Amino acid sequence: MSATSAPITTTPPVTPPPVSASAKAKKRLTSPWASLAALVLAVLWTLPTFGLLISSFRPQRDIRTSGWWTFFSDPEFTMDNYREVLGSDSSGGLGDFFVNSFIITIPSVIIPLTLASLAAYAFAWIKFPGRDLLFVAVFALQIVPIQVTLIPLLTLYVDAGIAGTFWPIWLSHSIFALPLAVFLLHNFMKEIPSTLLEAARVDGAGHISIFFKVLLPLLRPALAAFGIFQFLWVWNDLLVALTFAGGGGTVAPITVALANLSGTRGTAWHLLSAGAFVSIVVPVTIFLLLQRYFVRGLLAGSVKG
Amino acid sequence: MSIHRKGTRFRIALAGTVSVGLVLGVTACGDGDGDSGGGTTASAAAIDCAQFSSYGDLKGKTVTVYTGIVTPEDKPQIDSYKPFEQCTGVTVKYEGDKAFETQVLVRAKAGNPPDLAYVPQPGLLKQLVATGKAVEAPAQTAANVDKFFGEDWKAYGTVNGKFYAAPLGANVKSLVWYSPKEFTDSSYTVPTTLDELKALTDKMVTDGKKPWCAGIASGEATGWPLTDWMEDMMLRLSGPETYDKWVNHQIPFNGPESTAALDAVGTYLKNDKYVNGGLGDMKSIATTTFQDAGLPITEGTCSLHRQANFYAANFDKDTKVAEDGDVFAFYLPGKDAQTKPVLGGGEFVLSFANRPEVQAFQTYLSTDTWANAKAAISSGWVSANSGLDPNKLTNPIDKLSVTILQDKNAVFRFDGSDQMPAAVGSNAFWKQTTSWITGQDTKTTVDNIEKAWPK
């Protein structure tokens, strides 16, 4: 069960479960009852999203006065909500913010992945004094709640003169992602048998060619898995964007626009369902496309064990 | 009025006196009615740039504005700056953000404040001034405020005796929504005293109706409509002076005055015969969102709903909001027909920079020119600016709001919960009144709020 129900925290490598346990788990998971339970859970989890989808196509009056399930007895269909949400003539148009979200998200994924894989390599395979202490220190940064860093960070950005650009958002997301990224990738790297590295070293490979030619191909699932996590987190983030994008400005992502979509006093909340769907299109697509890597990345540790 | 003012302004502009102090003189010209210039109602059509020449040459400058006013109210805001932008060459960068109230503090503390912030609460205004980043309003803005706004409004923009922020928009909370059609059909009359309101309610009950509908759910701010109810009652039962003492905690929150006010709310909202029309029983008040709470009026299942003028936006586009339409509002009457306390809210323009273009824009926003320009292109927006001409308003509810604000007998008081310390105004007050509506008794409620007051 643990492999399916709690993917984020387990990322297994630390202690690969004994074979007997995984066999037991497999047996239990394939039982018809378990399948039924999984099915029920899946339906329960999807139902609200499904309702949201239906709502997004209903006329304003219907959304306000009745539940989405009445759609089936009295189907009324409109694209008005989407038109209004995407329309660029009104100030509620999500188009620009959609682009901003991409501009924010892509570097915010690439920067921490690059830095973290390099750092993880050093922590895993280069011996230097104070390595373990430093590693613990990096990982311990995880426990710093990002809320306490907001004002000091913003002050630094203002002093550096980059407030109001994309840089504060890119840098902040990278900063907040690095501790976990380093930790995870370090664990993945540690998993790789040292004999492999020794063989490469015997063949005359230095750190650089070991990293690029031996480790990176093996790390691909792990990188993809963390990439997806980071992508989803950045795409869905509101707090960091609100604080560092200067609020509703030219660099704000779609989440900020979505938060403002319902209007000053929440009078236009019927637009939220359509807005939400515009916003989740990208993460869902990414997830479906990269799902293969995602599962492989999660299982990487246990399978190898 | 406007004719004369415009003519005079034009003449002065021609004279070529370009100085900061001029704005003062210009706007003060309203009472001097010698000249009757040609430009009658041309405010929207052709922009008369001469009136802006006093601001000097500001080409290429930018003013950033940060506010909690977002869609759809932001568009008329932005459009109303256009004459200023075209004539002075200043670009106004408008940032609307619903998280304004928290973010503006973060930005001010981090040294990244906007040039101007539209602050909707006097309490927040004080906090922002306390960061030391805000600057006082320029003299000409202050002069405009003296001229166009009442003492009460000016006081809300003043912190520690220094005047910081001129009022921008305003809303009127002392309104009761009703269906004019129902009133005609059942020959009800709009009440002019609190007793008449009670009598009307009882009459509706005898007619087999549940007169009142209410809803207080509003996410983390759940409960705020009840605080408005209580403030309205406080103003009516104990008068504005006591209200001020109550807001500033010079009298305790659990004193006899507030107990009486809350009990007065209770006679309406904690009465199963009176509530909750079209929505359920008394308990449904806590679970109905404030946006939905007045909608039963249009369905004929509820007759009365106390909510501010901005509630108009919640009705369908097909619903006609007018004196002869589907829904309209009347002034929540005072104790007698003569006293007219008005509870309301509004935004204040706080400046964080004293560059000339910022001061010019700040001053422009405090003029009657801007108020009228803004009112001409928006619906559901009013200002307490006395230069605002009610006849130029197209929307009946706006007209009503302005009439109430400009009434000679009107005594305006700002929403109390917005002025109280955050621990009360946006925490205990909301939460305790929510508990109150779901069953907690009045004494426990006021005692708990009193306990929550920061020492």
In short:
The complex is a heterodimer of chains A (305) and B (455). Chain A is mostly helical and 305 residues long.
Contiguous runs where pLDDT drops below 50 for at least 5 residues of chain B: 1-45
CATH topology grouping of the largest domain in chain B: D-Maltodextrin-Binding Protein, domain 2
Major beta sheet summary of chain B? 6 strands, mixed
CATH class of the largest domain in chain A: Mainly Alpha
Query: For this structure, what is the CATH class of the largest domain in chain B?
Result: Alpha Beta
Distance between the termini of chain B: 50 Å
Counting structural domains of chain B, the number is: 3
Shape of chain B: globular
Structural class of chain A: mainly alpha
N-to-C terminal Cα separation of chain A, in Å?
Answer: 18 Å
Using the alpha-carbon principal axes, give the shape of chain A. globular
Q: Going by CATH, what is the homologous superfamily of the largest domain in chain A?
A: MetI-like
- The level of helicity of chain B is 40-55%
CATH superfamily of the largest domain in chain B: Periplasmic binding protein-like II
Mean pLDDT rating of chain A: 84
What's the layout of helices and strands?
The complex is a heterodimer of chains A (305) and B (455).
Chain A: H1 2-5, H2 7-10, H3 19-29, H4 32-56, H5 60-65, H6 80-86, H7 95-125, H8 131-140, H9 146-160, H10 167-191, H11 194-202, H12 207-236, H13 239-244, H14 254-261, H15 272-304
Helix pairs in contact in A: 4-15, 6-15, 7-10, 7-12, 7-14, 8-10, 10-12, 12-15, 14-15
Chain B: H1 2-14, H2 20-27, E1 62-67, H3 74-80, H4 82-88, E2 91-96, H5 100-109, E3 116-119, H6 122-130, H7 139-148, H8 151-156, E4 158-159, E5 162-163, E6 166-172, E7 175-178, H9 180-185, H10 194-206, H11 224-247, H12 256-269, H13 284-287, H14 290-293, H15 296-299, E8 305-306, E9 328-331, E10 340-351, H16 356-365, H17 368-377, H18 396-406, E11 410-414, H19 422-437, H20 442-452
Parallel strand pairs in B: 1-2, 1-3, 10-11
Antiparallel strand pairs in B: 3-10, 4-5, 6-10, 7-8, 7-9
Helix pairs in contact in B: 2-7, 3-17, 7-16, 11-12, 19-20
